[in-house]
Amino acid sequence: MKFQKIAILGVGLLGGSIGLAVRQRRLAGEVAGYVRRSTSLAECEQAGALDYATTDLLAAVSGADLVILCTPLAQMRAITAQFLPALRAGAVVTDVGSVKASVVRDLETLVSRAGAHFVGSHPMAGGEKTGVLASRADLFAHAVCVVTPTKKSHAPSVTAVETFWHDLGARTLRLTPNEHDKLVSRSSHLPHVVAATLASQVLRPQKSAAQGTLCATGFRDTTRIASGSPEMWRDIALANQAHLADAVGGFIVELEKFQRSLLKADEKAVAKFFATAKQRRDEWCAE
User: Fold this and answer.
1) Residue 109, exposed/middle/buried by CB under 10 A (0-12, 13-18, 19+)?
2) Rg of the chain taking only CA atoms, in angstroms
3) Per the count of CB atoms within 10 A, which of 51, 104, 177, 227 is most buried?
4) Shared fold status for 3-175 and 179-286
5) Sequence spans of domains, the chain
6) 3-state class of 54 per DSSP?
7) Fold (topology level) of 179-286
8) Rounded-to-integer distance, Cα 272 and Cα 287, Å
9) Check: CATH 2.60.120.460 for 3-175?
10) Taking the mean position of all CA atoms in its chain, how far away is CA 181?
11) What mean pLDDT is reported for the chain?
12) pLDDT tens, position by position, 230-254
């Protein structure tokens, strides 16, 4: 499916990777990008992710039949309200946000009032590096992209969004916004909290000077995602507050259970803890 013009609002890792993939696969006649800072214009040009970038939001959106919000979650409602005067009637608007319930609730009605159609989506792809210069055209190849339509969704627009992600190499999965948020609180958001906790606790300055020297591959791999954007993860955590708090609570329960087994020197319980984890991960990897 080819669009006349795609507008990418926020050209970082995800926005830039979308632009690269769209241009490589020739999925649009024109790819425009909106950035907040003029200093980002040269980086967009260097990355080759767009036909052009601009700090003029209305110019980026004007004439676009697909608008993709790649801004931080906390900015999505405000930026959508700002670009509505330039939004083409019948256009499709989607996003790449890691939390869906609040985004869909905020944007579906706003976009509908402008005569366009909003369909939430979340590509399960990314990395700890940020910025358009970290973009990759193959970022979405074989990734899962969750699409979160509602009862109010415009069916052809839902199909258009799913087809778009398929064309970028992703596999799509339909979930309700709330179901999405509950599942990713465990599989995506909790791991970031765990990695951040490990990095902060183990590498705190008060520890022995030799501590960092003894943090080898296992520690590096486990904490890799702690190098992600603090601002982005602040927004994600707060936007998915209830589900993430439940996930953290469940994690604490499991840790305390392991701690009790350890303090009792319960060999069977400790062995079962590691064996169960290995079995479940091995089965998941084999799927």
Assistant:
1) exposed
2) 21
3) 104
4) no
5) 3-175, 179-286
6) strand
7) 6-phosphogluconate dehydrogenase C-terminal fold (1.10.3660)
8) 23
9) no
10) 12
11) 94
12) 988 999 999 999 999 999 999 999 9
